[in-house]
Design brief:
Blueprint (H helix, E strand, L loop, with lengths): L17 E3 L5 E11 L9 E6 L7 E5 L3 E8 L7 E4 L23 E7 L4 E7 L3 H6 L3 E7 L8 E10 L13 H5 L7 E4 L9 E2 L3 E8 L6 E6 L1 E8 L2 E8 L4 E3 L4 E8 L5 E8 L2 E11 L26 E9 L7 E4 L2 E4 H6 L4 E3 L11 E4 L3 E8 L5 E5 L4 E4 L5 E5 L1 E4 L4 E7 L4 E7 L2 H5 L3 E7 L1
Length: 454
C-alpha cells in the first residue's frame, strides 16, 4: 500500500490522551483489544492491542522525583509485560520476561512501582513477543517533567512509527523469515501518534518543545523540520550540556528519542515534520501556523542535568561484542543453549543472528560488574544491516575516536560493517538486558545481558 495516497486524507485528531501521576498514586492501565481507524475513513478499521483502549497508549506524565505506581491488567489473548524504556529504575520493575519478571498471564495484574530520578522523554512498551505486540500497538509515551522546566509555549510529543497493514486494515505477517533475517519488520504506512499526517496548530513567534519518539519495529527514520528553527536539546531523555543547532536531517533509530526546542519562524501558513525516503521527502506531521509576524525568542535553552554517574575510562572493565548473521552475512554456525548448530538448523528454529557466536540470551552475562565499576564494550557489526543496540537500566556514552565521551544515550545505531565503543558506569544493580531494538533481530537471536552486583 502506497503511503502517499493517504497524505491529507485524515482530519487532524486530538492529542494523545494523558494520564497524570501524583506521587504514590496508583493507576490502572488496561492492556486489551480494541478497534481504531488507522487507514482513511473509506477503508476498514484495524484491530489493535493497546494500553488504555487507545493507540498509542495514553501519555503518562509525572514530575522528576515522583514515584510511578501503576497496575497493568492483562486482558489480551497472550501474556504480556511492560518495559519502561530508558528509565533508570529498580531492576525488578524493568518488565523483561525471563530476566526480571514472569510475563503477566491473561486475566492477571502486575503492580509496577518505582522512583523517577531522571527528567526527560521516555516511552513504555510490551517486552513480551515484542515484534508482534509492539506492532499491534502496545506502547505509549512517558514524559518526566523537569522540576525547573524550560519556558515554552507548547510541549508536543510525537511518536513516529510505521505499520504494515493490508488494505482490509488487518495486521499480518509475523514470524516472516524474511523479516527475521533481513532488515526487520518494515511497515508500509508512516504514522505520527497513530495517525496519518496529523496537525498541531502553532502561532508565529512561539517557542515549542517537540519530543520525538520512535516506536518503529525496525525502520530507521531520517526526519527533518521545515518552518521551524532551534536546537536539539536532549537525546534518549538525557539533556545535552551543549545543545546543537537543528541539523537538516535527524536520524532516529528504533526506540531512540530526541527533544527539540524550536521557534516558529516561517512566514508561510504551515510548518512540517518530514520523513526523507528514497524518492523524496514527505510530511509525517504538519503544523498549521497562524497569527501575525512575531519576533522569536533569542538564545538557546539548556535543560537542567539529570543525576550524573562519571565514567572512568582508564579503570573500566572491557568486553567485545561481535554481531554476526542475517542474510548476506555468512554466519555458518552459532551456539544455542550450549549446543553448536549450523545455519540450516538455526534457521529451522527461527534464529538468524548471533552475538559473540551465541544465538539467543546466554546463560552467562557479557559482563559481570560490581556496583560503581565502569565498563567499555567494543562492538563490531559484521552484517549487512543496521542494528539499534539498547542497554536496559543505564545510559552509556559513545567513546569517540579522540578518546572523549559523546552524549549519554540508551540506544545506539550501529551501521553495517561499523565498529563503535560505548562506556558506562554500572550504577544500577541487577540483571540488565542488552539487545538489538530491531525487534525481529532480537527475536531471531540478538540478545545478551549484563550483571551488576551490589
Amino acid at each position: 500500500m502506497e503511503r502517499r495516497q493517504f497524505l491529507g486524507s485524515l482530519a487532524a485528531a486530538s492529542l494523545i490522551p494523558r494520564y497524570a501521576f501524583a506521587q504514590n498514586t496508583p493507576q490502572r492501565l488496561l492492556a486489551s483489544v480494541h478497534r481504531q481507524q488507522i487507514l482513511p475513513a473509506s477503508y476498514p478499521d484495524t484491530e489493535m492491542w493497546s494500553f488504555g483502549s487507545t493507540f498509542p497508549g495514553p501519555l503518562l506524565r509525572a514530575r522528576q522525583g515522583d514515584r510511578l505506581a501503576i497496575a497493568v491488567e492483562n486482558a489480551l489473548p497472550q501474556p504480556t509485560a511492560v518495559h519502561w524504556h530508558g528509565l533508570r529504575l529498580d531492576n525488578a520493575m524493568d518488565g523483561v520476561p525471563g530476566v526480571t519478571q514472569q510475563p503477566i498471564p491473561v486475566g492477571a495484574t502486575f503492580d509496577y512501582e518505582f522512583a523517577l530520578p531522571d527528567a526527560g522523554t521516555y516511552w513504555y512498551h510490551s517486552h513480551a513477543k515484542s515484534m508482534e505486540q509492539i506492532e499491534r500497538g502496545l506502547y505509549g509515551p512517558l514524559i518526566i517533567d523537569e522540576s525547573d522546566a524550560p519556558d515554552v509555549d507548547q510541549d508536543i510529543t510525537i511518536v513516529v512509527d510505521d505499520i504494515r497493514l493490508e488494505q482490509d486494515g488487518t495486521i499480518t505477517g509475523f514470524d516472516n523469515f524474511h523479516d527475521l533475517s533481513h532488515a526487520g519488520r518494515i511497515g508500509n504506512l508512516w504514522l505520527a501518534n497513530g495517525q496519518i499526517d496529523p496537525a498541531y496548530p502553532l502561532k508565529r513567534g512561539e517557542r515549542v518543545r517537540i519530543r520525538l519518539i520512535s516506536a518503529a519495529n525496525a525502520r530507521v527514520f531520517t526526519l527533518g523540520v521545515q518552518g521551524l528553527e532551534g536546537w536539539v536539546v536532549a537525546l534518549d531523555g538525557m539533556p545535552l550540556a551543549d545543545p546543537q543547532a537543528l541539523p537538516d536531517e535527524l536520524v532516529l533509530a528504533p526506540a531512540q528519542r530526541m527533544d527539540l526546542i524550536v521557534d516558529v519562524t516561517t512566514d508561510q501558513n504551515e510548518a512540517f515534520l518530514i520523513t526523507f525516503e528514497r524518492d523524496g521527502g514527505y510530511a509525517i506531521a504538519h503544523f498549521p501556523v497562524s497569527g501575525p509576524a512575531a519576533a522569536a525568542r533569542s538564545g538557546r535553552v539548556i535543560l537542567p542535568p539529570n543525576p550524573d554517574y562519571p565514567i572512568d575510562l582508564v579503570q573500566a572493565r572491557t568486553a567485545t561484542l561481535l554481531i554476526e548473521g542475517g542474510a548476506m552475512g555468512g554466519m555458518r554456525a552459532a551456539r544455542v543453549d550450549g549446543e553448536q548448530l549450523d545455519a540450516r538448523s538455526l534457521a529451522g528454529r527461527g534464529l538468524f543472528w548471533a552475538l559473540n557466536g551465541i544465538a539467543g540470551r546466554p546463560e552467562t552475562p557479557l559482563l559481570d560488574l560490581s556496583l560503581g565499576e565502569s565498563a567499555r564494550i567494543g562492538m563490531a557489526n559484521n552484517t549487512a544491516f543496521p542494528h539499534a543496540m539498547h542497554l536496559h537500566g543505564m545510559h552509556f556514552s559513545d567513546v569517540l575516536p579522540d578518546g572523549s565521551l559523546g552524549p549519554l544515550r540508551d540506544t545506539l545505531l550501529l551501521n553495517p560493517q561499523e565498529t563503535r565503543e560505548i562506556a558506562f558506569q554500572a550504577h544500577n544493580p541487577g540483571n540488565w538486558l542488552f539487545h538489538c531494538h530491531m525487534l525481529a533481530h532480537h527475536q531471531a537471536g540478538m540478545g545478551t545481558w549484563i550483571r551488576v552486583s551490589a
